[in-house]
Amino acid sequence: MKILITGASGLLGRALMSEFEGDTSFDVLGLAFSRPKGTLRKVDIRDEDGVRKIMQEFQPDAVIHAAAQRRPDIVERDEEAARTINCSATEIIATISAEIGAFLIFISTTYVFDGTNPTYKPSDRTNPVNIYGRQKLEGEKISQTHNPNYAVLRVPILYGQIETIEESAVTTLLNTLVNQDNVDLVDDCCIRCPTHVDDIAVVCRQMCERRTTDPESVSGVFHWCGADFMTKYTMIVTIANAFNLPHGHLRANPVQPAGETPRPKDCSMDRSKLVSLGIGQTTPFTEGIQKVMKPFISKNYS
Ligand SMILES: NC(=O)c1ccc[n+]([C@@H]2O[C@H](COP(=O)([O-])OP(=O)(O)OC[C@H]3O[C@@H](n4cnc5c(N)ncnc54)[C@H](OP(=O)(O)O)[C@@H]3O)[C@@H](O)[C@H]2O)c1
Known about the structure:
This protein is of the alpha/beta class. Helices cover 40% and strands 15% of the residues.
């Protein structure tokens, strides 16, 4: 089975590449833009001709569309620039994947919900509270409209093997933890289910495999997330405890912070639709975060 991965140089994309490359029944091509390392092909996914050339040459059976502008504050600051990636490029990829008869998995977000009525099932009413959430919801609709062989996989806050500590909204908490100069208030209000990218990569592989035997079962909208319901405060304390780092300078903030960009309070998702198909993998947060952060902590803080 030939698999094309967009955003292959990103946090999730790198995990997708190693999951599919690790299985000889797949032939994988990864696309990147500013970081086209190793075997990755450089293309701007906003360039329709460039994308069509690569996809027609490679003829993938499945396309996992993970490329995005996924930082809500950046999207809020330049909505139109983000739209070209999150919506226009998605239309290009959905249209061409349909032309060549490829199954499309569009990676979406839990931010399509407003966070007031968890736990969310895939069929629940969407109501994004920020521009990023609205653009990803539009991307879902574009995928469905332009490629009948589509699946949407909504995922929450991700962590995994990082190139920099700031790459994931989970690992970047280390900066707050090690800066002991100030008493910091850390959000203990918004519920998140931090999810290891390796788990999402396994889910995508299993969905592609299921596609060959029972295509209907993996068509439509799906949710996957970690099983730990946490706030940023409980994540930071878990990291502190895992590495014996002091956290006395941190205080739990029970009030939702009023940031530059509105964020939903609790978008916890129900993952039973994939579980019922026998699809899924769950890395416990304490185990996953320890593995991911150990190299950074050993190098810089021990
Ligand atoms: N990270 C999270 O916490 C999170 C949470 C929920 C949902 N998601 C969703 O999960 C997916 C993957 O996110 P991620 O965290 O892996 O993102 P990421 O680390 O920011 O990576 C983004 C990827 O998109 C590529 N890209 C951006 N603009 C491009 C363009 N014009 N042409 C070609 N490629 C382009 C980047 O390529 P280069 O770096 O090579 O330029 C990079 O590979 C996204 O759809 C995101 O919305 C992420």
